Amino acid sequence: MNQPQTHTTLLGYLKWSIIATVVGLALGAVLGWQTTGSIGGMLTVFFICAVLAVLEISLSFDNAIVNANKLKDMTPVWQHRFLTWGILIAVFGMRIVFPLLIVVIAAGIGPIDAVVLAAAQPEEYARIMNEAHLPIAAFGGTFLMMVGLTYFFNHEKDVHWISVFEKYMSRYSTIKGIEIAFVLLLVLVFSSLLEGEESDTFVMSAIYGLLTFLAVELIGGLLDASQQAMTEAARGGLGAFIYLEVLDASFSFDGVIGAFALTQNLFVIAIGLGIGAMYVRSMTIMLVEKETLTHYRYLEHGAFYAILILSVIMYVQTLYHIPEVITGLGGASLIGLALWSSIRYNRAEQQRETDLSRGHI
């Protein structure tokens, strides 16, 4: 579905994100003053909130591009629902409820007790979260890897950025289950590098991640097929919405866990990552309305390469700690290179058209 281009400025798209930034940082400063009672403590919490917001933006820019790719085919009603309900689920569900749910399951305590634990014993709360990192990384890494591979293993894909890889992947995409076989091979490799219970946990979590991807694809296909049978205009509805929510959750895993390296305060993490999530929403809207993916043909490729890199990093993090700054910069660098390649292609096309019009070719 093609969106009419708008004349909204960059500042117009970022209006609500800027408001969320001001409110969030103010809340962070108040929280810092209440918990430490000092100017230094207040400034420290203020700074951590700002750093977490930047971390979330850097880790999730590829998320915004993938969201825009899916949203452009959704009806305006479902676009609006995702950009309103979806952002509420992303901010409150993944940044607050998800970490609490992990503690509830891991510690075997109630939700209220988990909130009390986060407020009164942040060190213990952080310890439980860190212990849950392995299954989360295996689950999220597997889901994201399937997302990335499904994009490249597509026989209908005829635009290639890094042709040496993409042409072969497109050619062999007709082999049924090739993406699943590739992921399962990696799961076996990484599980062999772990020992005992950790290896079993990795395999089981990765299997659940794979099954979740297949289930979301199945549900999305069934829902969209039934909607298409009713009316062509209803396509890209609930199925796409569910897919984007699970995708956002997978992207959020790394940011939520990585945030505990900066602070053990759940509420500070929620503020910082919540601010970042608002910018991801703003970027998604801008990419859809400006039809940026149409104008920059390789930008989407860069995002899916970044997804594949992130999925591998999540696997590697089960063995070694990788600083979040490397993860964020890696994804941003790939997207930057894709943007640069797109600009070069556009200039070359413009020059070719100019030469044709002048009769030079």
TrEMBL record:
Q: Does the keyword Phosphoprotein apply?
A: no
Question: Pfam families of this UniProt entry?
Answer: DUF475 (PF04332)
Tell whether Mitochondrion is among the UniProt keywords: no
**Key words, A-Z:** Membrane, Transmembrane, Transmembrane helix
The transmembrane segments are 12-33, 39-61, 82-112, 132-153, 174-194, 206-225, 237-253, 259-281, 302-320, 326-343
NCBIfam families tied to this protein: PRK14013.2-2, PRK14013.2-6
Q: What is this protein called?
A: DUF475 domain-containing protein
Q: Which species is this UniProt entry from?
A: Pseudorhizobium tarimense
Instruction: Show the taxonomic lineage.
Output: Bacteria, Pseudomonadati, Pseudomonadota, Alphaproteobacteria, Hyphomicrobiales
